[in-house]
Write a structure and sequence with these properties.
There is one protein chain. The chain has helices spanning 11-15, 40-47, 61-64, 80-88, 105-114, 134-140, 146-153, 187-197, 220-245, 247-250, 255-271, 277-290, 298-304, 311-321, 324-332, 334-343; strands spanning 20-21, 24-25, 27-33, 51-53, 68-73, 94-99, 117-118, 127-128, 158-164, 167-174, 181-184. It is an alpha+beta fold. Helix 9 (220-245) crosses helix 11 (255-271). The longest helix is centred in the last third of the chain and has 26 residues, at 220-245.
Length: 348
């Protein structure tokens, strides 16, 4: 018997124990990214639910607190699973896998671990694929080939994920084909989507690649989509930080206007070969305060001139060596610089 739902439970969560595969109950696994919220790992421990870390080896307590996990949800036994999902769902902290009853935790861990690494460049070696982050999954699967989607899904019939970071309560269902991406507007749609997904005979084993092989290889289109998505999310975060740091200066500016300024500033910053998150953030802050194109000011240009130091260190010189009079002059010309840049064609 399922326990009473906690206050604030999303309606679709209460339906999970009722869904069936030809009269048989389903099995659910939560894939959680604890790096998104340090509160998740203590909740996992307190729940007592069967779980496995997706990373292998002897891990420190600090690493275990931010590692990805797969959690078996016993939706027909007690209410711990419901309390956990109610607490962690939303904010792009995880997603839900739906499988046949025969799939166990060990099989799910083995399958998900086989997806963790994808081939990188010859210089960089393998890269970690953060599919456990819903924001990555929402981009990855729709841009997959049918063969890639089949390999990714493995024993999973379908996955349920937040449809967007701005609407955590709305579900998106994803199946074994790239076109099996559907926003689930209500409980009847959820039921139909899951029942249809269960018609696929998902394998009950994990076909690991041969030595030196890969389960997934990302296409250039996927890499571009993932890179663009990460860049967009970074721009959104910086725009939010601008509004938080300078609320009065942001009055009268829409979110879209702030994000457009941030994106153009990031283009300018990368043209200067700035790469670290700290230096990109600093550059965006300067562009906001002193206008796009502030680096054209003679004092700024002099301090940013190429020399034997990394460009990040040259940017730091602005805060250490710029004279007060140059800062004042830079501020005085901010409006004119911004007007010139807004009238000029923007870079793509």
């Amino acid at each position: 018997m399922t326990a009473a739902a906690p206050a604030g439970t999303l309606a679709w969560l209460e339906q999970l124990p009722l869904l069936r595969n030809q009269g048989r109950p389903l099995r659910y696994f939560a894939v959680l990214d604890t790096a998104r919220d340090r509160a998740i790992e203590p909740l996992l421990r307190a729940s007592g639910l069967p779980r496995e870390c997706l990373l292998a080896g002897a891990l420190s307590a600090r690493l275990l607190a931010v590692a990805p996990y797969v959690v078996q949800l016993d939706v027909h036994e007690g209410g711990q699973w419901l309390q956990l999902l109610t607490a962690v769902w939303g904010g792009s902290r995880g997603w839900l896998a739906v499988t046949r009853q025969e799939v166990g935790l060990a099989l799910m861990r083995r399958h998900l671990r086989s997806l963790l690494l994808v081939p990188g460049s010859a210089d960089d070696g393998p890269s970690l694929l953060r599919f456990f982050d819903p924001r990555v999954l929402r981009v990855l699967l729709p841009h997959s080939t049918s063969a890639q989607a089949e390999r990714f899904m493995g024993p999973m019939a379908c996955v349920l994920v937040e449809s967007s970071a701005s609407n955590d309560a709305q579900l998106c269902g994803m199946g074994p084909r790239p076109q099996d991406v559907q926003k689930l507007q209500g409980l009847p749609q959820l039921r139909v989507f899951v029942e249809r997904a269960m018609l696929r005979e998902a394998p009950l084993d994990v076909r690991l690649p041969p030595a030196g092989g890969w389960v997934l290889k990302l296409t250039p289109q996927q890499l571009h989509a993932l890179t663009q998505d990460a860049s967009d999310r970074f721009a959104e975060r910086l725009a939010h930080e601008l509004r938080r740091a300078w609320p009065r200066a942001c009055e009268g500016r829409s979110t879209a206007e702030l994000q457009a300024l941030v994106r153009q500033a990031l283009i300018d910053a990368r043209r200067l070969e700035l790469q670290s998150l700290r230096s990109l953030s600093d550059y965006v802050g300067l562009a906001f305060r002193f206008g796009l194109g502030f680096e054209e000011h003679p004092a700024v240009r002099r301090l940013l001139e190429p020399d034997d130091r990394p460009v990040e260190q040259r940017l730091a010189r602005l805060f250490l060596e710029m004279a007060d009079g140059d800062w004042a002059d830079l501020q005085a010309g901010a409006a004119a610089r911004s007007a010139r840049r807004e009238d000029a064609p923007h870079d793509d």
